[in-house]
Amino acid sequence: MNSERWNEFDQRWLKRLGVADRPGNRRRVAILLAHSGDSWFWLAGLGLLWLSAPEPWKSLAARVTLAVLALAVIVLLIKFRIRRERPAGEWGAIYRRSDPHSFPSGHAARAMMLAVLAIGWGPAWLAVLLVFWAPLVSLARVLMGLHYPTDVIAGGLIGLLAGLAAVLIFP
What is the spatial distance between Cα 156 and Cα 75, in angstroms, rounded to a whole number? Predict the structure, then answer.
């Protein structure tokens, strides 16, 4: 598929799915889910877990933190190489100012990696929760107009690979 067809695909689905400018419950839920994948939120939570929890939670928090930071570097390198602009829109000004590039989605990558890490390292209840949560974060990023569908697909694949690599390297 050539880039023109990818762009048509992205534009069509972005228009169909977008709720950023439509008040209502779908928008409120999408906002919550879109923010739930923020790196600061996860790093703060992992920091608190490391400070307050006993082993094995402390070492789990440290491994996940390292994985999140490594993934952030990988995603940023790709973003600054590709330099695809985010979809036009008003919502999410903080994301648009701090990171104007949309491909790949760091939120989708992080959410998918966290789900994989929970499957490999975490308790079963957390794995189940994150496996359901990860695709919802990705969808919410499209719903709120911060990413095109291909941004979150690519981000999810990168997160999947990063999570598998982390679990294989540090079983």
Answer: 11
2 vs 46: which has the higher pLDDT: 46
What one-character DSSP code corresponds to residue 46? H
Partners of residue 101 on adjacent β-strands: 85
More confident residue, 105 or 145: 105
Q: How far apart are CA 116 and CA 64, in angstroms?
A: 11
Residue 54 pLDDT > 60? yes
Q: What percent of the chain has pLDDT over 70?
A: 95
Q: Is the pLDDT of residue 27 over 70?
A: yes
Can you tell me whether residue 85 is helix, strand or coil?
A: strand
Name which of 168, 162, 170 is nearest 60 in CA terms: 170
| Residue 68 near residue 43 (C-beta atoms within 8 A) | yes
For residue 56, whether the previous peptide bond is cis, meaning omega lies within 30 degrees of 0, is yes
Contact 39, 68 (CB under 8 A): yes
Q: Measured over all CA atoms, what is the biggest interatomic distance in the chain, rounded to whole angstroms?
A: 52
Q: Which of 156, 141, 164, 157 is nearest to 89 (CA)?
A: 141
pLDDT above 70 for 2: no
End-to-end CA distance of the chain: 37
